[in-house]
UniProtKB/TrEMBL annotation:
Residue ranges occupied by any ABC transmembrane type-1 domain in the UniProt entry: 93-282
GO cellular component: plasma membrane
Keywords assigned by UniProt, alphabetized: Cell membrane, Membrane, Transmembrane, Transmembrane helix, Transport
Subcellular location per the Swiss-Prot or TrEMBL entry: Cell membrane
Lineage: Bacteria, Bacillati, Actinomycetota, Actinomycetes, Propionibacteriales
Name assigned to this protein: ABC transporter permease
Segments crossing the lipid bilayer: 32-51, 94-114, 134-156, 218-236, 256-277
Chain segments annotated as coiled-coil in the UniProt record: none
Source organism, top-level taxon: Bacteria
InterPro entries hit by this protein: BP-dependent_transpt_permease, MetI-like, MetI-like_sf, OppC_N
CDD domains, sorted: TM_PBP2 (cd06261)
Family indicated by similarity: Belongs to the binding-protein-dependent transport system permease family.
Provenance organism: Nocardioides mesophilus
Membrane topology label: Multi-pass membrane protein
């Protein structure tokens, strides 16, 4: 990078990121959210090793209430609810993370490219983006899975594809302002490549809204991935999956509610935890922006 073209702005962007992180960790909602997400993530990781039974093992009669041999009772086929719950979180979390990373990554690149290119290229990309935004996420996801089958990687990729247009819109709006700054113009005058300008000049200066967007998309991914499994288009029996558990045991909710309540509570808490952290990052970013204006 040429001297003066981006050294100072890049350092300032790094300072803003650290300031955002410090302010975020001081907020109560961020600590609560991190605690919830950390506990559930740890439970998801170690769950299959501490489960008392195999996720597909029959341990009693269907819809048996909690007992000493099955602490959360059994499901509709007589399998241990606790064991299936401990083994069923990995799929939800893994697919949600993959969907958020792929969707936000693709959307961020499109938004940054459009903001820097400007003109006709920017207009065409944003109009195409508007067309993609017209498709409801759940309907598009179900359509793809109906055509190609409920593969784990396809679920994550399809959900990520539905996030990309929304992320592109947000990041493009943030990057347009940065693209007009003097240090970007200086980098262009120095002959820097478009890729270097996008990743070295624009990207560091939109990192705060990008973090907020990632948190939002991860929240939506958790709910959408679970919904797909609940509707029968996700992982198939006898796989252990929180969304699938809700679908399999909803008919016995009045008889043995734990088979439904536990995965619903886990999905809800995970969503709330991520949302708390995302909201804290957004609040910290707004606070830093206001300080910079004073």
């Amino acid at each position: 990078m040429s001297a003066g073209a981006g050294t100072v702005p890049t350092a300032a962007a790094a300072h803003v990121r650290w300031a955002t992180l410090r302010r975020t960790t001081k907020l109560r909602r961020a600590r609560i959210g991190l605690a919830i997400v950390s506990v559930l993530t740890l439970l998801v990781i170690v769950g299959p090793w501490i489960a008392p039974y195999s996720s597909s093992e029959f341990v009693g009669a269907p819809f048996t209430l909690p007992s000493g041999s099955a602490w959360l009772g059994t499901d509709g086929l007589g399998r241990d609810v606790l064991s299936r719950f401990l083994s069923g979180g990995r799929s939800v979390l893994a697919m949600s993370l993959l969907a958020a990373v792929s969707g936000v990554g693709a959307g961020a690149f499109i938004g940054l490219f459009a903001a820097h290119a400007g003109g006709l290229v920017d207009g065409l990309l944003m109009r195409l983006n508007d067309v993609l935004l017209a498709f409801p996420q759940i309907i598009f996801t179900l359509l793809v899975l109906t055509c190609f089958g409920p593969h784990t990687w396809l679920i994550a990729l399809t959900v990520g594809m539905t996030h990309a247009p929304r992320t592109a819109l947000v990041i493009r709006a943030a990057a347009v302002q940065v693209a007009e700054r003097d240090f970007v113009k200086a980098a262009e005058a120095a002959g820097e490549s478009r890729a270097r300008i996008i990743f070295a000049e624009l990207l560091p200066n939109v990192s705060s809204p990008l973090l907020v967007e990632f948190g939002l998309r991860l929240t939506y991914s958790i709910g959408l991935v679970a919904a797909v499994s609940f509707l029968g288009f996700g992982l198939q029996p006898p796989a252990a999956d929180w969304g699938l558990m809700i679908n399999e045991n909803r008919i016995g909710i009045t008889t043995q509610p734990w088979a439904v309540v536990v995965p619903v509570a886990a999905i809800g808490l995970l969503t709330i935890g991520v949302n708390f952290v995302t909201d804290a990052i957004a609040r910290s970013t707004i606070g830093i922006d206001r300080e910079g204006e004073q």
